[in-house]
Amino acid sequence: MEEAGVSRGLSSGGRPTARRARLLALPHRQVALAAAGSIGALLVVSVLAVSQATLASRDLQSAQSRLAPVDARVTIAQSTYAAMMQDARALTIKTPVTPNVQDFTNAQDAWTAYKRVAVRLPGESKLQAAFDKKQTVLTATLATFVAGTATETDLANVTSDFAKGSATLTEIARLYDVAAQQAYRAVQLHTDAVRHDVLVASGASLALLCVGFVLVFRSTRSRERANVTNAAERARELRRGELETELQRGLELVSTEEACYRIVQKALRRNIPTVAAELLVADSSRAHFQQVCRDEAGGPGCPVISPNECPAARRGQTETFASSTAISACPYLQERPSGDCSAVCVPVSIAGKTIGVLHATAPDREPPDRETAADIELIARKVGERLGLLRAFSRSESQAHTDPLTGLCNRRSLESQVRDVVHEDLPYVVAYGDLDHFKDRNDVYGHDAGDRALRLFARVLRDNLRPNDIPARYGGEEFVIVFPNCPVGEAEKVVERIQERLGVALYGGTVPPFTASFGLAASDPVLTFSETLEAADASLLQAKIRGRDRIVVAGADTNAVQPAPAMTETLSPATP
User: Fold this and answer.
1) Per-residue pLDDT tens for 79-107?
2) Which among 532, 401, 543 has a CA at the least distance from the CA of 472?
3) Among 175, 390, 412, 451, which residue carries the largest CB count within 10 Å?
4) How many secondary structure helices (H) and strands (E) does the chain include?
5) Beta-carbon count within 10 A of 332 CB
6) What is the pTM of this model?
7) What stretch of H or E contains 64?
8) Among positive and negative, which fits the CA dihedral 30, 36, 42, 44?
9) CA distances from 317 to 354, 376, 530 (A)
10) Contact at 8 Å (CB) between 129 and 142?
């Protein structure tokens, strides 16, 4: 049933299906967005890495473009200087040799070209100054050889100066080698850092992408489960709403409690067929439960006797018992002839007052589920509301047609019932009665004694009339009795019996003794009820005039009318 309800909720109409499709497609869009974001982040990192690598390459090229020419000039200077040293090795004092002027010129040009492109490395200026100084000294020394005035000291100085100059050039060349190596190493370190950043960023992006996929996948599953759960819940609410509407309409169509019970039985059989259920309702005294409806299987037959003994009725709330073998199980579930069972008991209340219980049983340790219990509670609530309305209407209707003091019909109810008698063309007799000296008795004994006298007289009327006779309190101490389909003679005998029974009821009681007078009138096709009632009232007046405590029949020989036996005078009534 639930799956069918879900299917109907998801497939009925195009809009719910489209809404569900959009809801289910939303997580997939999130996955795509997460993937696009991760890939975009990875691309950004890669572009930045390539940019950084390009900048590092440019830095390396810039360093090479600055250092390579200088290094080349230093190399040329070194080679030229080496040629001059080769010439210097042939110098002697005894055999003067003119140095190679071209080599010296080349050495000077190479040194000048180097100084023009030098980049001023740390310590380079000091080495340049030292080399220039040595070169000046060396030029002067070489001039002595050309002039033939060189000495052994000059020869030693030439050799030493050439060695020191060569060492200076070598040191300058080393400075540029170190600078080139540092630039290359810096570029390599920068490249390694960029590569490391790219790898870290790529790994982080992939990890983020994986985490995003996992979270979105879980979100997708959770949304799908939530959608299915919500659809099932909506289907249950829709079904329960339909049940409530149908139950409400069915109960509104009936006007008796028995008809309500039949609808409850039909609702139980149709909506909770898997459990055995019965409805127990307390009688008017609330002392006993009565089974008013049961399912087709005969119902569980709960043996509870009264509402005070039922835990659900006593507590006024739903009670669920998973097993009749449990220590906390209801005593009336234990040791049933049908065996162990589980149960749900829902009280039926009217204006907060429990008047019944809806009792359902299921296999042991398999109590009715929450949805079934909710259906039972719904049925119990609706039947309680309808019973309360019917009983309230019955009370109000009874109060509208009944005299509140005596419980007899009031004037309006009497006229309504007599209208039905007249409509059926039945003959009838009207007896108009009045309590003798009632106002004087109220003045002597008080109004409470007067009310007790009225209630006692009403009880005597009810006990001595036929079921179809209509007694009514017509106003004050006046009473009217209508005898449908009754000869006037029989009606007179009934009234005489009422006077006799009144005396008996007064004997030994707490009500001060009193008597009653009656006037009788038979109906006539040409007379209305009001006219017949006026004739009976006139006869009552005659009874009052002739001494009270007697009966006068309209149209009869008044001389033949005898007073009724005055039981109140022959018996010893209780003193007030």
Assistant:
1) 777 766 666 665 565 555 555 556 667 77
2) 401
3) 175
4) 14, 10
5) 19
6) 0.51
7) helix 14-88
8) negative
9) 10, 13, 56
10) no
